[in-house]
Amino acid sequence: MYRLIRRRIVTLSIVLVLLLPASACSRQSDLMVDEEHLSGKLRIAIDTGASKGQVHPLDHSVTGPIYDRLIDFQAKHPDLDIEMIDISFLTSQASTIPQDPLPDIMEVVPYQIRWVANPNELENLDTLIQNLGLATPYEQLIDKTRVNGSAWMLPISNEPVIVYYDEQVFGQLGIPLPDDNWTWDDFISASRRLAEENYMTDIPDFPDGGFGVVEPIIQGLGGTYASNDGMHFSGYLDSESTVSAFNRYVSDIREQRSKRMSVIGKSSYFNFDQVALGMGRPSELYNLLNDNMNLRITRMPLFADGKRHNTTYISGLAIFSQSKNKAAAEALLKELAGNGEDAVNFANYNALGNRDHRFSDSPLVQQEELMRVMDLETMVATPSTFQLNPGFLGNYGILYLPPANITDAIKELFEPDSIEPVLQNLTHAVESKFPDQRGKW
Description:
The chain is built from 16 helices and eleven strands. It has helices at 2-34, 65-76, 110-116, 126-132, 136-144, 167-173, 184-196, 215-220, 240-266, 286-291, 326-337, 343-355, 358-361, 367-378, 405-411, 419-433, and strands spanning 40-47, 54-57, 80-87, 105-108, 154-160, 162-166, 200-202, 275-280, 295-298, 310-319, 381-383. The longest helix has 33 residues, at 2-34.
């Protein structure tokens, strides 16, 4: 028995000795991957709003949160030549994205993955994301962008709708301040009381591009723009429930909206002192919030279903599947994601800083509160149905192209007698145009 035990101990010792070099090699291999030497050229296309596509090296002449991180990455890999391609959708050109070949990395939105990308044109990021072991909030943000169950982009910009109100005016008029139980009915009640005292409620629907801004309200009132997978509009955008939701919205906000439109129609100057309540995309609100320190930021109201509804303008980086420098492209995405702890907060901050540099250069008094609410609203938000590219302005993309009646129809969308026919026409236009966008970057 003693000899048998001793023989087993000796055998086990030999096995352990043999395994140790393999384990050491494994650790060394992991280290080599982590410290992989990156070189060559990495072409990155990011929306800048420039009038045309411009190509330039990555240097300190470009500013913004995402550029700061790109510059840090390049500093770690001095032999890597990063070439930036400024892309824009505020142009008459069909595209400012180089087509042959596509850039190694492109800033995209879920719509482009769903309707524009050709099969196998973008790299599936499922394995990369699984290996990162990301914090839950960022994983959830990635999940919102999945198409056909897979991840194709790593979010770098995210901007849900927020609500703001004038705390001083509310107090003077005896209007209860918003809290966690604040509802859409409370929002409307407050807006009507404010109107009695000639204060405005600002919900920027058309002509300010607000067809997207009112989407969460329409959802909360029982409507929807598209199917859950974003592939179908007939029976959703033109459904009875969506028509009813638009009618309810117009009825609830008609008086306040008429006052706002009359003020805009009289002068290009917008008196911020008149605005005591509203909702919108945060990056559009710098002037308003900066000029009135009494404005506070709060969450979207609860609706009859007991839930908050929100939509977000979200974009992320995707890798071209035929990239000649895929190792560098993947390394960059890993660097940007980190462990995901601050990735959601960074995506929100990047949306602000890239669209208005003042959020970075001269932060608002309310900015900490703004960021906190954006983080909370991100958790309930879904990608905006009609964000057709990373550009904040002109986000309707093909809807602004001929036939012009699509754009004209949207102008009439918030008139009670026009809602049903406009939604029917819009549905038909989208159903016919979207499938024709394959490959049209």
